[in-house]
Write a structure and sequence with these properties.
Alpha-Beta Plaits, about 220 residues, disordered C terminus, globular, about 25% helix, three-stranded antiparallel β-sheet
Length: about 220
């Protein structure tokens, strides 16, 4: 048994329990995401994957909304795209420097045409680097609290070395009892660096090789 859905005019038959994001991918349609990693359970925290659904007064998050039979979805709904763009712009406004072009954040911002001129200039995160770990570097100022590293550490590796801390502008991620990677239960699997959409956590070798954040490469 399957459900019939329409994504930007493309009709699909999907299995029960399929999310709108999964259906959109099957239809070849792009939906922006930041907190989503297909290796992890959908989280629905960033509100960047918003889409329009016929009959719904407000945009819905594609990663956590399950398709229902007869659903008609617009991935380019103007209201949904405004919400996604505003979220990404707010995230960018808190960073001390633009994200590296290869990062997911930079690519999503480019696709949404956000970032050239930010409307909300103001306080930015102070540069704060944890470089004591032999394999991993943590650039706290690039953290956008998407939760992917914490969930990768918990769900994929089961090391439970990372914890979300703080709220609002002060939200970030701490390793261990806020003593840094080196003194945490980190097993150096690299799952956190692999999933990070901003290079807040990356491999030390990438920084040494000159492919990391410019501030770290310069020794700031």
């Amino acid at each position: 048994m399957s459900d019939t859905v329409r994504i930007d005019g493309v009709q699909l038959e999907v299995a029960p329990g399929t999310t709108i994001l999964e259906a959109a991918k099957l239809a070849g349609r792009w939906v922006p995401t930041l907190c989503f990693d297909e290796r992890q359970a959908p989280f629905g925290a960033c509100r960047v994957c918003m889409v329009g659904v016929e009959g719904s007064a407000n945009p819905l998050p594609a990663c956590t909304t399950v398709c229902r039979d007869g659903m008609n979805v617009s991935t380019e709904d103007p209201t949904a795209r405004r919400v996604a763009g505003a979220v990404v712009e707010l995230v960018l406004s808190e960073l001390p420097a633009a994200p590296a072009p290869h990062t997911e954040l930079a690519q999503v911002a480019q696709r949404l045409q956000v970032g050239a001129e930010l409307r909300w200039p103001g306080a930015v995160h102070a540069v704060d680097h944890d470089l004591e770990h032999p394999y991993l570097a943590f650039q706290h100022e690039l953290c956008i609290s998407c939760g992917r590293c914490v969930r990768a550490c918990d769900e994929v590796q089961g090391a439970f070395a990372l914890t979300a801390v703080g709220r609002g502008f002060d939200a970030n991620v701490a390793a261990g009892l806020d003593g840094g990677f080196l003194h945490s239960s980190c097993v150096s699997c690299g799952a956190c660096a692999d999933t990070c959409p901003t290079d807040a956590i990356t491999e030390q070798l990438l920084l040494v090789g000159g492919n990391g954040n410019s501030a770290v490469a310069a020794g700031v």
